[in-house]
Design goal:
The protein is an all-alpha fold. It has a domain of 187 residues: Vanadium-containing Chloroperoxidase, domain 1 (Up-down Bundle). It contains ten helices and two strands, in the order H-H-H-H-H-H-H-H-E-E-H-H. It has a two-stranded antiparallel sheet. The termini are far apart.
């Protein structure tokens, strides 16, 4: 496998800049490119110690962190043997490498250091998210240092970083589910189980989480959960007690004061419904005045009769 031309040019620019830095920078870069791996080992131990008081899934993720990193390393190492890209410190003419060039047969693509750094950061990030501001920059710095000291191309470390993130994340997330019940069972094996795997801290009364450690250490900032108020006892009905239900009006059927409407027979006009209006009762009730009689004149036109014609004898005689 041959390196891309743009990667070679970037490699020349970085190594020429590194060659012009002071000697103590060379020493720090050469030592730090390997010492960063020890920092991740210390973080693995810290994550395991922290998970001893967490739930079983947290412990499973902490135990899987170095395993996931190792799986990512195996994937990168196998890719090296297949692709067989020569190291830039031997392939590029007049290369200005700070660190000693590895022996022939130690291929360049992808970078194992970048894979280990990125895989460790990804596994730690899944198990302990609070480490994200520290492990991700540390992994990126370790990957860049391999180009700075002159033993890798830029595309070597970029590919190794991607392999580490992908492989370690997949192993941690996929293996955590079957490993969590195993951690719960091993914790019950006295005395080795609690000594190695620890015991989860009990959730505080009225605290956060679901009682199994999930979310118990994540309170909402600036707020506390209010204490639950006791409920007043509700009265219980006595056996055999009667329950009074108020009468409700029936909207679909006729009311108690609505007379039935007579039905008309076939071929006959429908009779009018009787009026339900009643005259007010009482000593002070007034009767409606009677309608005046009507009179027909000689031409057949109706007219109003006067008082003498409507109510007197003459009026009755004329109508007769």
């Amino acid at each position: 496998m041959r390196a891309p031309g743009i990667s070679v040019e970037v490699y020349r620019s970085i190594t020429e800049f590194a060659h012009g830095t002071p000697g103590w920078v060379h020493t720090v870069a050469e030592v730090g490119t390997d010492a960063g791996l020890l920092a991740f080992v210390a973080l693995f131990a810290a994550g395991w110690w922290r998970a001893r008081t967490r739930d079983a899934r947290s412990m499973a993720l902490a135990l899987l962190a170095p395993v996931a990193m190792a799986c990512a390393y195996l994937a990168s190492s196998n890719a090296k043997d297949v692709l067989q890209e020569e190291r830039p410190c031997r392939a590029v003419p007049h290369a200005m490498n700070i660190a000693a060039c590895p022996a022939p047969g130690d291929w360049s693509f992808p970078s194992n250091h970048a894979t280990i750094a990125a895989g460790s950061a990804a596994a730690l990030l899944i198990a302990w998210r609070a480490l994200a501001p520290y492990v991700l920059p540390l992994a990126a710095l370790m990957a860049f240092s391999r180009v700075f000291v002159g033993v890798h191309y830029p595309h070597d470390v970029a590919a190794g970083f991607l392999v580490g993130l992908t492989a370690a994340s997949a192993v941690s997330l996929l293996a955590a589910r079957p490993l969590t019940p195993a951690v719960e069972r091993l914790r019950r094996w006295d005395p080795l189980g609690p000594l190695v795997l620890g015991t989860p801290a009990p959730a505080p009364a009225g605290g956060y989480g679901n009682g199994h450690g999930h979310g118990a250490d994540m309170p909402v900032a600036g707020r506390t959960r209010p204490a639950a108020k006791p409920r007043a006892p509700q009265p219980q009905p006595q056996p055999g007690a009667s329950v009074t239900v108020p009468d409700l009006p029936v909207l679909d059927g006729p009311g108690p004061h609505t007379p039935p409407v007579p039905q008309a027979r076939v071929g006959q006009p429908r009779p009018a419904a009787p009026s339900t209006r009643q005259a007010p009762a009482g000593p002070h009730a007034q009767q409606a005045p009677a309608a005046p009689d009507r009179q027909y004149g000689p031409a057949g036109a109706p007219g109003n009769a006067g008082p003498s014609e409507a109510g007197g004898p003459a009026g009755r005689h004329r109508r007769a």
